UniProtKB/TrEMBL annotation:
Gene3D superfamilies on file: 3.30.30.30, 3.30.420.40, Actin, Chain A, domain 4, Substrate Binding Domain Of DNAk, Chain A, domain 1
PROSITE patterns the UniProt entry points to: HSP70_1 (PS00297), HSP70_2 (PS00329)
Molecular function terms from GO: ATP binding; ATP-dependent protein folding chaperone
InterPro entries for this protein: ATPase_NBD (IPR043129), Heat_shock_70_CS (IPR018181), HSP70_peptide-bd_sf (IPR029047), Hsp_70_fam (IPR013126)
Keyword ATP-binding in annotation: yes
Record keyword ATP-binding present: yes
Species this chain originates from: Mikania micrantha (bitter vine)
UniProt keyword list: ATP-binding, Nucleotide-binding
Name of the protein in question: Uncharacterized protein
Similarity comment text for this entry: Belongs to the heat shock protein 70 family.
Amino acid sequence: MSKKVEATAIGIDLGTTYSCVAAWFNQHNRVEIFPNEQGNNITPSCVATNNTELLVGEAAKNQITRNPHNTVFGVKRLMGSRFGDSKLQEDINSWPFKVIQGSADKPKIVLEHKAVEKDFSPEEISSMILKNLKAAAEAYLGTTVKDAVITVPAYFSDRQRKATKDAGTLAGLNVLQLINEPTAAAIAYGFDKLEDTSHQLHKNVFIFDLGGGTFDVSLLTISKEGRIDVKAVGGDTHLGGEDFDKAMVNHCVREFKKKQNKDISGNAKAMGRLKVACEKAKRDLSSTTATSIEIDSLYEGVDFSTRFTRAKFEELNSHFFLKCMEHVESCLRDGNVHKNNIDDIVLVGGSTRIPKVQYMLKELFDWKPLCKSINADEAVAYGAAVLAAKLSGNGNKTVTDLILLDVTPLSLGINIDEGTMSVIIPRNTPIPTTRERMYYTRYDNQTSISVPVYQGECNDVKDNIFLDEFVLHGFPPRRAGEEKMKVCFSMDANGILHVLAESVTTGNKKSIVITNSGDLSKEDIEKMLEKVAL
Ligand code: AMP
């Protein structure tokens, strides 16, 4: 049913495996999720090409086993990444679609579309998913949609955030703000409580968000006046359900080899069918202790059949689950809150349905019950929709009164003394924020100083993420240490960094917004906008 309403700002959860879109409805005084064409509230983050058309969402996922080389999933793992990254290489080797090295070490996805091979940036593929979600909202609303809030993992770096914002622009969206996924989930969790004014509220809440591709933890306080203060975040942008599926697939490949003496790992079609079957079996194992995987004619006419137990699944993935718990402990330490002082532990993301994950988390929090009251699949889009309403001046008093104080996920600084990280904004600093530090010339008659910007926690910059570099010229030639440069870092509410360097003597300055960190320039976006209209 289509309803005519005023322009609405939407909230989008752009997930690794599934995405979801929602908006605040003044008429109903609540958030509604927009169903996709098939009537489902979540849409596979999947894009495919064939001889005649471009498919997005369920249509793309449904044909994956017939067309594995031209069906892209998990593109979120490619956003803002470097082709040479070792974790990414592992993914690329396991994916049936082709990923090549583009300029500046950026990955490019190669698809055959209408019998022609074309390469696409991760931003372009993501923009197709975003366009599809935008269209679902527009079909439901009966009007065009422009403004959006898009969610990103709290642990996303500056590069990954910029790439997400660019994907939004490519999809024809005006990205009002990016919001961290656990913070969006906290809004969904806290919203009912904020609405209930009789409720005495100042709660320490721990959000545990394990999705398809990323893992985020966030420690925050929700206060009665409608303030959500994030104290600390942590996680791994490369850990989630996809990894658990992969561990199962690899186990089955080994079993097939043992039983049939045939290696199926090089056959994309067989691997695609095995992945679909393993993901289904993984879901079954959340509610039953054993299941079977049966695939007719998997490889060279040979069937595959095996029994998979929950215990085997847990054994194969135990190192991932342990890693999750380590992140929980380090986030509690960073936020300086003892686990006994956590009022609620909130589960978000499809992979939190895994019983072992729930068990380990409960054990860590001394058997405190976990909060499963929010919809694990929709909570992030819900929170993004509330923020979209607030930013566009919509919504009721609870929406407009909402105050969000997020933090930087990773430390930001510059490279000094040949390879040492000098931190200017430490991780878990509330944003927006502005911090500055003074630097000195290092040798006599030095007239320029370079400012190489990095993000990460290591003392040695080569182990951190390089963002960008510029040079400030025009220092008067003096003895080493006599000339000063002030470097000022400002991080905006999107988590995007602005850098300014200034000579104290001359007042000469130079500033940049970190944009060319392997991401897209304005011109790139314009060029791509033409190309994306396939
Ligand atoms: P999300 O990114 O939050 O949509 O989570 C998607 C991930 O959750 C995928 O890897 C799914 O396979 C996984 N998932 C969904 N339901 C279950 C379940 N019942 N048990 C285990 N994993 C699940």
